[in-house]
């Protein structure tokens, strides 16, 4: 709604003293311009919600001095009439690298990894660079500025896009004529952070997403400790980090999960980041809103895929198709949910796709007010410049654009972009409109001249006695040049007409040069100028409405839920129930599930309102627990150090991984998501329930016991990859890593106790201290007996406890020693021969360990095998002759015990959580299929629903393909088919899984 | 209870295995009769309470034990309550070509170069591989050993798994040419910083043309006077004569259709498709062109997020149900050690829609037909090799695939392995400890 200003009679110049200029001049006499420029008759959009129709405003010395319906015009004013035009505050982009030279990649030192920092006097990690200050590398780039001017931008916040903590940005006014001194509105305007390492250093750490998060946490802790004066050394980076503390903190992310992750880190340290988002925030709108962050949202919408080739179309996932369909509605959905956001041109040319995509967002429901706010007042506020930029207001910088009409309409254009009172001309403003139909008299002949098109780009059609004559018209800077083919069609000759058309007139006359060189004059007299150009009308009809936005599911991909499912009360009737308890395997038994718990087990139970499922001939078991998994993780290994106890896998859970659904279809309900085995001391675990569709947070097992991954053998030695320059490279060295770290952890604990106020809090040491205090369990990846024995001895001598040896392929050689120390074993059923250290791995391992009293489990370490863990357990009946009950416990109760969650899961017992699987057949047999998988009474997998989903996926995809084909037919740009693949993670998977 | 179980089986196995160093078994010297077992013939038929007799390495009689009990002769195996199966056949395997995946020195599966029909797997086949011996206790007694890599990987041979060396291992030499069909999509090399996604490959057509021109050049060369030696072209001779089958490793829908066209263009009578991930989309074309298929490992993940979670499980069974001649192969990660799970791959086909005896065909008679060794392998039928085994129970299910005896060409082979020995060795350690206390 347009709010009419009843204002205002302001007295100009009274409050506006010109600043004293102290720069000497040697190029002439000193000239100081204190004139006013007054704009009148404009539709002034003073801010996103108010417009002054037919208003006036004045500027002087780069600032706005008055705005109103009518203001007094000082005598020393240049007046510009903006009749019929709109004025908006120019836009602000808070994520920019404007005027900063792209950081150059340091040539890496061949193949060898680098583990130490390259800088001295700075932080121990090269990727923490808070001392970087954009303004020091800034120089105005007129060409780039031109692009921003074209897009309507007047101010950008630029920064050095390099490193994890990237240092401070600078708020730059894109003043086309001023000096850097004018343009720099604010030095150290905000601090930037990201997940990307600096290209200037090859330092390996951090090599993972959770490593980045841990590094930021540690840097914050160190900064505080440093600020308190406890460090003996000089650390310019930490000093800068402390200096930057109170600035706006902008965190650049490029995917939705990371957006949520950084907010978590911020919350831990009382920092509210402004988050550069992915453009897919709508997929997790509730969680996004919960962060309380303001978002910088890029307008880069996925292009439609080129799906004309039916074979290729098969490679595009439903998730990607949906993103194409839904992403343009992101801003609308954010606005509807009251999530504060600004818009950035990141990834776009501000002069080109920016407006196109902005209009698209508006077509998808974003209001113009919200769009304008996201480009003006919101970013101004975020950067602490409210009232100074982003509004047309007395005292604000004279940053505004003059447009031909409503900016948020397709046909409107920007004429001028004024920054700090200096104008950049985008389109000539007062172009005389010469369109219309004219009678042209030339050299004694009568022609009809029809000028169509827009005022800026007129086109001519000429007829002589109803016969079309070739012509070419150009109209620039009020000079018209018209080329006409000679009426003598046998010759290729031209008549050249030139005329100055200074203002709109019914008569155009000028000079004509005939083919023979003679000069004469011509006159064109307008018949009528009401005929609108036809082609713009034609175009309108082509534009059909945008495709309907399909609903978001949880996750927003194939097999997602339309709504987050809820716990049901279910009575399983007449099943073969594998209790894993004293009752053993009960035939023809009933199990009642109520409020997420196993309420009752027995015969002929009453449903009492619960849904009854006839389980005759079927087997009901507790859900499978996978002790060792790497599914649903965005990153597996932090291999940048030989210890990474500071990282936690809870930071990098990916709840959208389809492996979760597939595991559910294999009867798995709980998994320990482990750090990989790239280093002896790995990261902390995430114990999760496979709650497909829920958030990462909700998947974490309630009151999760604390775990950490250790590793031994070839992987930590980097035997099969790596450069061989990271300690340790032998099993001898591995021992010393543990001795060293636990020795240091003990010293750390002592120091902390002795100096509770001045010790340096170290997340890694804190984690090791938890182990020493027996608050955190170790699960250690292990292969050969020598190293297993070694770790047991290290633990004995350092007085800590090993909870589990995982993989433990030679556990059978040490089962007695493990049993003595009450250490469990989680192993593969039959894997071997894939590397040298599994030479002695035997499929009888589980049976032997079990026979010696070791709590034994079968684990997967593999997204494929994890969905058949029931069969892997079945193999122990073949290899070692376990009974079926013993075999079944290997994948249910025993791993639950190893994870210390057997009070909640692992067996069918009244009062335990209803994590259950209904199998079509004997659960240990190759013939069994999971038909229903429940977690806390919620049916997360149902074989019948799966069938329906297959149909629905097919239908949805074909609808979206039709939409994409229609888009392509309309001439929308498409991209080649891409199948986004995740790297399937194992223990030794490095880097970030995309 | 559990101790009892294990000692029982241990005792059982040590009686059978004794201390044999998995030495190849001696030639069959007397007739062997297996009495009373449920015989799974491998062609879909079952004989309850059967009598199977073999002499000089060949099956001489298969019938009903109750009717022909008196005929039992020679060494008699009472197999009442047990099951007899023809030896399972692992096609497109690399057993004996690599011993330890991560130890490069043990890796002989992938030669450099693109067009390598002359590269022969047989000569690198390690008959004494410790991995191969672990096939036998699971009933996998024969395998087609194929080279990997390149465009034309090379030439495979078919071996049995109880031999002194590759010469006596071979049951069919140089049986097939293995082609890796080009891919219409290309995976980004994520380790080189590329997007790991799959994109259309610009080289697809180009690669097909390369392959076709190789065939054309080879034909031309063979038709000429062959003045210059050209090993790759010479190795193609058996392909054109039809003596060497052509195994085309291919998975995509479009690619399979292109392979079918290739078969027509090149007039290749004996073309087998290996992998066929998208096979269910081209059932009609496969049928119409009578192309047999060795489907990829059922215990693998779907290729695409949107695919049915059970697509790899059901691929073989669905194709077989449509009347296509199907066998199951198991190439992929850790394929050598995983080859022993072949029986359970067939079990999976049974779980996903096939009758168990039909599923059994996927690793016995069908595979023998596809490989062209059905005259002597793949079923329990008179005249065929006595390559078979006795299992305590259903051999397609991991719970009950427990072999008591196995025979290759009538020779009673050891079911011991390095793994069973380690098992015994350490159980003995613990028994000694217990006794000492």
From TrEMBL, chain A:
Q: Which residues form the Amidohydrolase-related domain?
A: 846-932
Renumbered residue ranges of the record's region Disordered: 519-551
As one GO molecular function, the record gives: hydrolase activity, acting on carbon-nitrogen (but not peptide) bonds
- Pfam families listed in its UniProt record: Amidohydro_1 (PF01979), Amidohydro_3 (PF07969)
The record's listing under InterPro entries reads: Amidohydro-rel, Amidohydro_3, Metal-dep_hydrolase_composite, Metal_Hydrolase, Metallo-dep_Hydrolase
Keywords from the UniProt entry: Signal
What range does the record give for the signal peptide?
1-19
Q: Where is the composition biased (Basic and acidic residues)?
A: 529-543
Q: Taxonomically, which superkingdom?
A: Bacteria
Ranges for domain Amidohydrolase: 361-416
Q: Which PANTHER family match?
A: ALPHA-D-RIBOSE 1-METHYLPHOSPHONATE 5-TRIPHOSPHATE DIPHOSPHATASE (PTHR43135:SF3)
This protein is called Imidazolonepropionase
Provenance organism: Zunongwangia mangrovi
TrEMBL record, chain B:
* An MF annotation (GO) of this entry: hydrolase activity, acting on carbon-nitrogen (but not peptide) bonds
Per UniProt, the keywords (alphabetical) are: Signal
Ranges for domain Amidohydrolase-related come to 346-394
Q: Where is the signal peptide?
A: 1-20
Q: Which domain of life is it from?
A: Bacteria
Q: What InterPro entries does this protein's entry cite?
A: Amidohydro-rel (IPR006680), Metal-dep_hydrolase_composite (IPR011059), Metal_Hydrolase (IPR032466), Metallo-dep_Hydrolase (IPR051781)
Keyword match Signal = yes
Instruction: Please tell me whether the keyword Signal is annotated for this protein.
Output: yes
Gene3D superfamilies attached to this UniProt entry: Metal-dependent hydrolases (3.20.20.140)
Q: What PANTHER family does this protein map onto?
A: ALPHA-D-RIBOSE 1-METHYLPHOSPHONATE 5-TRIPHOSPHATE DIPHOSPHATASE
What this protein is called in its record is Imidazolonepropionase
Protein source organism: Zunongwangia mangrovi
